[in-house]
């Protein structure tokens, strides 16, 4: 049997992933004053032990004022390096490659938890730095009704923000992360510079498409100067935001970004407005995959597909079709943190060899000794749904 592509190693610069299964960044809303707690280690550890090739730590903010909500992690100062390095260690010790996403929420900063009805946070004595936690953006255009107008960044402030990204990248390297992803999606700061809807600037950073690309490209360049040559750099993009930034714009952006040292694109969508996406396919299996395929083909860059990729056979088909090079599985890993072990078994591999030996040996013994039943997660896969 030939090894399924999903479980074929991939090399990017000097980093080798044991397979193509990626856990994308997922906020835990549990940081304390920007620092990770035990839960963050448990969370990333269970995904690494569950067989993923690459596990990303959540969107970690490059500036305090870029925090999306209470509980965000920070890499805005050197003192954050040592505590977050524990997460990189836990991932690596469990056989996976440690990645981290850097972010800045821009005009969507200072928000409520998703389960408390999304919206801006209200002033409260529990947030002593409420005023310093100021939403900033390319222009003073509020994210949605009920949100405050962000303060438009002065031209003279932009180099400082670019440097914040670069310094956070330097810290991510020092903390032991091997893959870095810049959050250029979901309506946050870098995406909002690209957006003709959110960016109404009249200087060199707004107006024409080339001008709107300037700030994110300068960030990428500054980050690359701090992020080692042998470590891969990913971007997460909103391939369609339903507000003027779509697939063709992204192809042009990636063609400009790639020569700056970008290695792969994580193809997501949405976030510029609070309107639900207009895509007819939005709640269907792999709805964002066609964009990963388009970008891979037209910008000639490795892509990561994400969004309702649920089953191993579904993931394998995306790779076999040449639509993407990596498969990110988010919420389904929350449902089943052993997703990669499970997918390997269902694709006909031993599977238990990607689990830590303390579990894998027992489980493979159980199978070898002729136990005739199936694991509790057993269902045949997407093919059964079609
Ligand atoms: C709890 C949770 C937190 C998330 N946090 C982030 C984040 O920090 N950065 C980001 O780019 N996307 C974030 N996302 C989006 C996921 O990375 C992923 O793109 C999305 O869940 C779709 O993939 P899925 O259908 O496999 O879950 C988050 C999603 C969830 C469910």
UniProtKB/TrEMBL annotation:
It holds the Pfam family Oxidored_FMN. Residues 6-344 form the NADH:flavin oxidoreductase/NADH oxidase N-terminal domain. Its cofactor is FMN. Keywords: Flavoprotein, FMN, NADP, Oxidoreductase. One of its GO terms (molecular function) is NADPH dehydrogenase activity. It comes from the Bacteria. The keyword Flavoprotein applies. InterPro entries: Aldolase_TIM, OxRdtase_FMN_N, YqjM-like. PANTHER family: NADPH DEHYDROGENASE C23G7.10C-RELATED. This is 2,4-dienoyl-CoA reductase. It comes from Albimonas pacifica.
């Amino acid at each position: 049997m030939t090894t399924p592509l999903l479980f074929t190693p991939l090399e990017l610069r000097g980093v080798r992933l044991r397979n193509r299964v990626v856990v994308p960044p997922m906020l835990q809303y549990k940081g304390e004053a920007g620092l990770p707690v035990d839960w963050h280690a448990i969370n990333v550890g269970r995904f690494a032990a569950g067989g993923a090739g690459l596990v990303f730590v959540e969107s970690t903010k490059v500036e305090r004022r870029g925090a999306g909500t209470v509980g965000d992690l920070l890499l805005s100062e050197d003192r954050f390096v040592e505590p977050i390095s524990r997460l990189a260690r836990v991932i690596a010790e469990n056989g996976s490659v440690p990645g981290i996403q850097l972010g800045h929420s821009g005009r969507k900063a200072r928000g409520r938890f998703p389960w408390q009805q999304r919206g801006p946070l209200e002033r409260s004595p529990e947030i002593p730095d409420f005023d310093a936690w100021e939403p900033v953006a390319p222009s003073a255009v509020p994210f949605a009704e009920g949100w405050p107008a962000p303060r438009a960044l002065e031209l003279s402030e932009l180099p400082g923000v670019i440097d914040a990204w670069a310094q956070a990248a330097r810290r991510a390297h020092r903390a032991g992360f091997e893959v870095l992803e810049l959050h250029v999606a979901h309506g946050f700061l870098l995406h909002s510079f690209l957006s003709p809807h959110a960016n109404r600037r009249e200087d060199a950073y707004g107006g024409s498409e080339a001008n709107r690309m300037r700030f994110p490209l300068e960030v990428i360049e500054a980050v690359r100067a701090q992020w080692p040559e042998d470590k891969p750099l990913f971007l997460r993009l909103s391939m369609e935001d339903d507000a003027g930034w779509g697939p063709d714009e992204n192809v042009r952006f990636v063609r400009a970004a790639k020569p700056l040292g970008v290695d792969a694109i994580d193809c997501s969508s949405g976030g510029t407005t609070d309107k639900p996406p207009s895509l007819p396919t939005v709640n269907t299996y792999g709805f964002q995959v066609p964009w990963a395929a388009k970008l891979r083909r037209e910008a000639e860059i490795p892509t990561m597909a994400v969004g309702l990729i649920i089953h191993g056979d579904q993931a394998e088909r995306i790779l076999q079709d040449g639509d993407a090079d990596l498969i990110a599985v988010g919420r389904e890993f929350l449902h089943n943190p052993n997703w990669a072990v499970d997918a390997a078994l269902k694709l006909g591999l031993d599977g238990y060899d990607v689990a830590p030996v303390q579990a894998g040996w027992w489980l493979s013994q159980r199978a070898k000794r002729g136990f005739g039943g199936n694991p509790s997660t057993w269902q045949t896969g997407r093919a059964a749904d079609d």
